[in-house]
Each structure stands twice: as C-alpha cells, then as structure tokens.
Amino acid sequence: MRLLSKSGDTVEILAAPGEDGLRRGDYLQAIDQGRRILLQVIDVDYANVPGAVEDALRELAGERIQVTTIDPYGVGSLIAGVKDARIIVAKLRGIVEGGELRSDLLWLPSKLNSRIEPAPPEIIEELSKAGGRRAITIGECMGGVITINAEALDGRITIITGKKETGKSHLAKLLITSLAEYGARIIVLDVNGEYLGLGERVDGEPSEVADKLVVLRPGENFTASLEDAGLRVMLDILQHVLDTPAASLREFGRLWRLVSKVEGRITLRGLMEALARGQMHESVREALTSRLMSLEQTGFFRDERPTELREVIEGLREGGIIVVDLSGMLPHGRRIVVEYLLSKLSTLLRGGEIDPLFLVAEEAHLYLRETYWDDLITRMRHIGLFPIFVTNQPDTVPETVYRQADNIFLFNFTNESDLEYISKTSRMDSETAKRIAKSLPPRHCLLIGRMVNDIPVVVRVRESYLKTLGETKLIWRS
Ligand SMILES: Nc1ncnc2c1ncn2[C@@H]1O[C@H](COP(=O)(O)OP(=O)(O)OP(=O)(O)O)[C@@H](O)[C@H]1O
Ligand SMILES: [Mg+2]
User: What is the Å distance from ligand 2's center to 472 Cα?
Assistant: First the structure.
C-alpha cells in the first residue's frame, strides 16, 4: 500500500488487488521514521488508471475474436495488477505521539518511505479509552476487545439509533445492567415490555441484576395522587395530553384552589363534586367532566395510597433498574404517566431528595411531548437526569438532540434521508457517519463521541446472557 494523496482529512491510499481485505471502519497506520498517523478506512474504489477504458475495450473486442496475447517479457500479470489497482479512501484521525492522538501537529509521513499496515487492536483500545475506571465491555473490533467507561455516560446525553432489528435494545440492556452493577440507578420507559425479563438469564436462573430490578405497572403498583402531582402538572396534562381549551383550564385552576381551601386536600372525587356543583358555563363543565373521567379511567390517579417514588428510588441503595411498564397502555395513558413521572423526578432532583439517575427512553416520540425534548437535554440534565434515547426512526428525535449528544451508538441505516439526518451529529464528520452506517452488518455499531475519545470505532456487540422479552411475535416460527 502507498499513500497517494490527501485533501482535507481524506487520504487516498493505493493498494494492489490482494491488499484490500479491509472493512469499513478498520484502522490503518502509516509509519515513517518512528512516527505514525492513524487512518480510518471508509471506502474502497477502483483506481483511475489512465487509458483503462481503452484497454478494457480492446480486451473486450479481443475476447470475441479470440486473439492470443503475446507476452515475451512475462509482465502480463504486472500490468493486470496495475489496471486492477484499488484506492482505499480513509479519514485521517490524527498523529500518534506519546500514547496520545494529536490533531494539532503538522506532519505527514513520506509517500515513498512510509509503511502502511493495519493498526494493531491494542492501539485502538488504548487511544479510544476515555477517563474512568468502571469498564463496560461492548464487544470486539479488529480482533481486540472494546470497552467504554461508565463515567463517559455519566452526566451526558446518549443516543442509540439504527434501523429495525439491528440490536439497539440488546445494547441498551447490556449498558444498563452494567451501569446498575456499578451502582447507578436507571429508569426505563418501556413501551414494548421488553425490559421486564432483565432479572432472568436465558437458562432461567436469576441474573446479576435480579435483586436490583423493580417493575412499576401504572394503575397497579404505580399510582399517583392529584395532590402529589400538583396543579402545574395537572394543568400540563390537561393542556398537552387531553387538549383542554384555555377557558376550561382557567376554570380548573379556580376549582382546584377552591377545593383545596374548603376541604384542605385535593382529591379526584372532591374535584368531580365541585365541578358538578359549581357555577360555570355548561360547555366548560362538560369539557372538564370528560377530561377528569379520562384521568380516572387510566387508573393511574388514585386518591388513596399513592406510590412514593422517592422511596422506590432510594430503596435501590446499591443501584438498580426501575422499569416503568408502559406496554399495556393506551397512548393517552402513557403520556399522562410520563408527564407525571418527569415532573416528579425533576422536583425530587431539584430538592436534592434523590441522587442523579439515567433515563432510558425507547421511541420517546410515542409519549414525550414536543416541548419536553429541550427540557430534557438542558434543564433536566443539569439537575441530574441523564437521558439515553433509543430509536429506529432518527427523525423523531429533534436535530438539536443530535447536535448536543455526547455519545452515539450508530447501527445500520440504508435509507438516505435517515442517513442525512443522523449525519447532523457534531461529534463526527458526516461522510464517515454515512458511509460506515450504510455498510454495518446487524449487531455491529459505530461508537461515536466522548466514550471513545472521539475516535469512531466499529464494534461487533457482544452477546448477553439475559433473557430477552418483547421479541416480535410471528405467525411462522422456524
Ligand atoms: N450482539 C448481539 N448478540 C446476540 N444477539 C443479539 C445481539 N444484538 C441483537 N441480538 C438479538 O437480535 C434480536 C433483535 O435485537 P433487538 O431487539 O435489540 O433489535 P432492535 O434494534 O432493538 O429492534 P427494534 O428496532 O425492532 O426495537 C433480538 O432477539 C436480540 O436478542
Ligand atoms: Mg428495540
């Protein structure tokens, strides 16, 4: 292999036909006089040899009339090799110096004297290591083991994305079980009921996180009282989830204060009664009655013995996973529960009543209202709620979230518009993201961002012993 050219951070390398047994995402190093640069392969092309078209045409014509080529000097294979040369397109990731990857140094290896070879896996492992000591093994890359540190996710925004069935949820489970073992607390919003089996291994034995798993089922072991939710949350739910008109919202606020003053305590019953008795426009009464009845029907709001979220979270002293099972719920119910949960968490965090935690949100657009995204990545992250978004529809996550994401686990995408969208991430050049994501096999992902020291690495995600639930039900099972 020979260095051919460099433009910006794109480097072209000339290779003989046999030399390109590489995969997208692999690393090469070019060594010259003891120094080296690190190059990441993103594509391979045929070399544009002058006169190649003419030669090919001549050979094609020759085939038809079966001429025998005379090759007195035996250079035929050499010429064939030249015609068949490849160009490896790679991205310059930096100069390796003193165990560090530097991008500020101005140095290029000699085109004539440099040696180009696959980078040893240890170098990639070493360079991609971010600070911290709580290692999470993700999988394998170029024969080496790639681990990230739990600290790289702490206080950060993480996105796991890729098309369907590529292994996103598998990776999310792998991450959160490791985080929980290291003592972190994680809340999972589970729309498919696929995190409920984390307590069990494939062989039926209890898993390492069996005693760290709490499943909250809204309406069953997870309920809230109106009193606890407070007027602001209830107004948000009425406005954003149940589309209550402004006039009715004002009336609701008035009723709330009235009941609170007269009875000393807010209950759903109390509000219903006050609504039936109070003087107001019939249309307002109807609007509010129907909304309060929908709230009651979710079974989530109950006046007696509401769940003490703080106790549930604090109960997991050594870390743990709280799965909020949203799988059996209707869209309205899901959104109501999430609205309550987020506002409750933010109150608890702000008051210093609970320690910071992770929030895993799969397909968040199904239950998160538009205005919550910004809140989650700015205000709520500052007070200690660190989101891990998982999605197979990248355009349902606002662009700002990609721009601000610190870590991205990128699985395969083939659709151009999806690729365009994910390439907006600020932690990597869009060309690499697009070309690599397009060619990733299932269960392989590209790690981007802080967790790998901004050295993008393609990893084959390891298997896990955990029982998987929530698989797609099929008509025919093989
Ligand atoms: N690295 C892996 N090793 C072994 N099995 C895996 C791996 N990754 C995924 N799987 C299996 O492949 C199947 C699909 O994976 P998973 O459910 O994680 O995909 P997904 O990307 O979340 O899909 P969806 O978009 O439908 O939610 C699952 O049965 C899972 O157990
Ligand atoms: Mg999934």
Answer: 10
- Calculated CA dihedral for residues 189, 191, 197, 202, nearest 10 degrees: -120
Nearest to 401 by CA among 415, 430, 431, 421: 421
Instruction: Assess whether 81 and 180 both reside in one domain.
Output: no
Same domain, 282 and 406: no
pTM over 0.85: yes
Report how far apart, in Å, the C-alpha atoms of 96 and of each of 74, 99, 150, 477 are. 42, 6, 25, 51
Domain count of the chain?
3
Instruction: Give the domain extent around 33.
Output: 2-127
If asked whether residues 82 and 34 sit together in one domain, one would say: yes
* Phi then psi dihedrals of residue 137, to 5 deg: -80, 125
CA distance linking residue 320 with residue 389, whole number of Å: 19
Q: Which of 246, 222, 215, 249 is nearest to 234 (CA)?
A: 249
Which residue's C-alpha comes closest to atom 5 of ligand 1? Answer: 463
Residue 139 parent element (H or E): strand 135-141
Rounded to an integer, what distance in angstroms lies between the CA atom of residue 246 and that of residue 200? 48
Q: Are residues 264 and 355 in the same domain?
A: no
Handedness of CA 279, 280, 285, 286 (dihedral sign): positive
Is 392's C-beta closer than 6 angstroms to any atom of ligand 1? yes
pLDDT in tens, 164-209: 999 999 999 999 999 999 999 999 999 999 998 888 887 888 888 8
| CA-wise closest residue to 199 among 321, 315, 317 | 321
Residue 168 CA, ligand 1 centroid: distance in Å: 6
Cβ atoms within 10 A of the Cβ of 457, count?
25
| Coil, helix or strand at residue 185 | strand
pLDDT digits (tens, 9 = 90+) for 292-328: 999 998 889 988 888 999 999 999 999 999 999 999 8
Between the CA of 391 and the centroid of ligand 2 the distance, in Å, is: 8
